[in-house]
Amino acid sequence: GDSTRILYCHADLGDWREILKFRQEDFENYEISFQIPAAFTNEEGDTLLILKLDQITIAPFDSRLDLYCYNMTQDTMVWSHRQFDPYGGANILPPLIEGDYVYYVGVFEVHCLDKNTGVVQWKWGYPETGHSLQGSNFLLYQDKFIVKRGNGNLYALDKGTGAEQWVIEGVSNA
């Protein structure tokens, strides 16, 4: 199509409204689509969305990913990272938000950002191995961010620093 957009539906009223729209023409020859957003409420009571915008082109093949924080209440973009992940694409699951941080899982790397400013706190990964995180499961547990790579290894990272705490090799597909 000529655009991609985020719609909001009030559950009690059933009325739909457009809250954010990106025009296809602003992204060269790339097809654009949003992935499932994550949401949080800031100290002022505003609802904010963390959005991943996928971009793909076929001839020649290339993919890119932008990351945005949008304030639905104020109708403003809080921060954005154009072409955030150098490997394009992202994990199919939405980012995780806990405390002041958002945890984003890309194709090969995990990033921790300040949810209010978008400043990257740390990143972790081994892109040179080719073991993708694209379909991997991940979760926050106590002080750890736990993620499984495409090679079956399960990693626990310190959620504050990204430092590897432990690894279990060859975990089955779970």
Describe this structure in words.
This protein is an all-beta fold. 0% of the residues lie in helices and 51% in strands. The chain contains no helices and 15 strands. Strands 3, 4, 5, 6 and 7 form a 5-stranded antiparallel sheet that branches. A 4-stranded antiparallel sheet has the order 8-9-10-11, with no helix packed on it. The radius of gyration is 17 Å and the shape is globular. The model has no long low-confidence stretch (mean pLDDT 85).
> Regarding quaternary structure, how should these chains be classified?
single chain
Q: How many distinct helices?
A: 0
**Helix-residue proportion:** under 10%
Summed over residues and divided by their number, the pLDDT gives a mean of: 85
Sheet of most strands: 5 strands, antiparallel
| End-to-end Cα distance | 36 Å
Structural class: mainly beta
User: Measured on Cα atoms, how large is the radius of gyration?
Assistant: 17 Å
Strand runs, count: 15
Fill in the keyword field for this structure:
single chain; 174 residues; mainly beta; five-stranded antiparallel sheet; four-stranded antiparallel sheet; 15 strands; 51% strand; globular
Helix and strand layout, with pairings?
Elements: E1 3-9, E2 16-23, E3 31-34, E4 38-41, E5 47-57, E6 62-71, E7 76-81, E8 96-98, E9 101-105, E10 109-114, E11 120-125, E12 138-141, E13 144-148, E14 154-158, E15 164-168
Antiparallel strand pairs: 1-2, 3-5, 4-5, 5-6, 6-7, 8-9, 9-10, 10-11, 12-13, 13-14, 14-15
Concise synopsis of the structure shown:
The protein is an all-beta fold. Helices cover 0% and strands 51% of the residues.
